[in-house]
Amino acid sequence: MSPHAIRQNSSQINPSTELRKFAVSRNAFLPEDAPLKQLPNAYYEPWELIVHNLPSLIEAGETGIRRAVDQLPVLSTDRLQSEPEWRRAYVILAFVTHAYILPPQISVPFLKVSKHLELPPVLTYAAANLWNFSCAGDDFSNLADLDTLISFTGTQSEAWFLLISVAMEARAGAIIPPMMAALDAVKTREYDVIISALDGLRTCIDGVGVLLERMYEKNDPSIFYNQIRPFLAGSKSMEAAGLPRGVFYDEGEGKGEWMQLRGGSNGQSSLIQFFDIVLGIEHSTTGNNTPEPGLPSYHELIRDYMPGPHKRFLIHMTRMGSIRELANLPAANDDHRRMKEAFKAATEALTIFRTKHIGIVTRYIILPSKQAAMGGRQNLASASSSKKEEKELTGTGGTVLVPFLKQSRDETAEAGKLKN
After folding, report:
1. Are β-strands 247-252 and 255-259 bridged in parallel, bridged antiparallel, or unpaired?
2. Across all residues in the chain, what is the average pLDDT?
3. Which of helix, strand or coil describes residue 224?
4. What is the DSSP letter of 204?
5. Residue 14: its pLDDT value, please?
6. Where is region (Disordered) located (predicted)?
7. CA-CA distance, 401 to 135, in Å (whole number)?
């Protein structure tokens, strides 16, 4: 599967074939069909039984999740056949990993499944969101039809938090082919194609933002911060939690490896990076928000936490260039001038979206972090909730949260300030 871009005339692009090799569907980076609700082979029933009862097992602590996992056999991955089965296995093992770290019964198959899917062995956005939902209909953007498959807490707040992202991904699926056609049209100066795509992108981003703001409807900030968020973080920068070397992935018989991995976050969504790429928005922020010349930005580093085909798709898109290149040129005619205005409007929409995201973070993380601790369970992720100062608060993806989000927002706004 080559990551190299192949330029085609926009009229020749067939989305169903052009995008299939990158695992991009009509639902954007979600699968074409809803994920499996369970693995079909009865051999994997021990895994399914644990995740079916995961909230109650976690609540029981030593006599629950630990005992259940310790009694598991080390199951082989040889009986996984289709990609949906590999994805289901990844979701199962990721959730169990963040509930109980990390005996060979989990780490051995998890390492193999992760390698197959080209993902790290941790609860990524793909495990928590992209492959962890069911839908009563065929419209994955309809929140009323969505439900989660696996949950840590079994709460409505957790389900709503995860499903908002599913709906956002699906809402944006239809914009991907037009934006690819628009990039192709940059070289031929087909302004009508570009303007139409940019207008569609602005509408799409606005619609995704409306879904994001629905987070407030059924996700309680206190439940999210104290009960859900601790399970989402990884083992990177977790010295304060007693994990100076990260987590040991025990493979039994004295074998294993220490790993420091980022936890799941919406920063791992390929969709938002797709928006950035087609608009030509450049980010210099690193994981700790300090730009360092010659080093990749956090936005580039985090691609290693995306499914392999999605990462290759973003590389493919980057090599196609961006609309900003044409937008920054002096207006050659009225059509070019209209295109520049459409570009500014799309960039402004993405800036507003990022501002909304900061508002969500303020309500669900910053404000709760300033309140007294409510006796939440200590686990792998607790350190990400332990720093009280806004300037130091760490995101589950490993960034200094608020400065990172604000800088990303400001870089987006800056991209809309055209040179000509």
Report:
1. antiparallel
2. 87
3. helix
4. H
5. 52
6. 378-420
7. 32
- List the structure tokens of 416: 């809309």
Mean pLDDT of 262-291: 83
10-415 CATH fold: Methane Monooxygenase Hydroxylase; Chain G, domain 1 (1.20.58)
Which runs of E-coded beta strand occur in 123-262?
A: 133-135, 146-148, 247-252, 255-259
Contact indicator for 360, 215 with CB cutoff of 8 Å = yes
**Per-residue model confidence (pLDDT) at position 329:** 93
Mean pLDDT along residues 391-407 = 69
Per-position DSSP letters for 174-224, written without gaps between them: GGHHHHHHHHHHHTTT-HHHHHHHHHHHHHHHHHHHHHHHTHHHH--HHHI
Mode of pairing for the β-strands spanning 146-148 and 133-135? antiparallel
**Pair of tokens at residue 286:** 């690193």
Least confident of 122-131, 145-154, 339-348, 391-400: 391-400
Rounded CA-CA distance 26/29 in Å is 8
Window from 40-44, 223-227, 289-293 with minimum mean pLDDT: 289-293
SS3 content of the chain, % helix, strand, coil (to 5): 55, 5, 35
Asked if residues 283 and 276 have their Cβ atoms less than 8 Å apart, the reply is yes
pLDDT at 187: 92
Token look-up 């995306």 returns 306
- Residue ranges at the known binding site: 357
| C-alpha 287 chain-centroid distance | 16
Q: What is the spatial distance between Cα 176 and Cα 194, in angstroms, rounded to a whole number?
A: 13
Instruction: Tell me, yes or no, if the pTM score tops 0.85.
Output: yes
Considering only CA atoms, give the Rg of the chain. Answer: 22
What count of other Cβ atoms lies within 10 Å of the Cβ of residue 334? 9
25: β partners: 28
The DSSP-derived string for 112-160 is: HHHHHHT--SS--HIIIIITSEEESSS-TT-GGGEEES--SS--HHHHH
Backbone angles phi, psi at 329, to 5 degrees: -80, 150
| Residue positions forming the annotated binding site for heme b | 357
- Beta bridge partners, 252, equal 255
Phi-psi region of 417 (alpha: psi -120 to 50; beta: other; left: phi over 0): beta
Angle between helices 176-186 and 270-279 (to 10 degrees): 20
Phi-psi region of 144 (alpha: psi -120 to 50; beta: other; left: phi over 0): alpha
Burial bucket for residue 196 (CB in 10 Å: 0-12, 13-18, 19+):
middle
DSSP state of 325: H
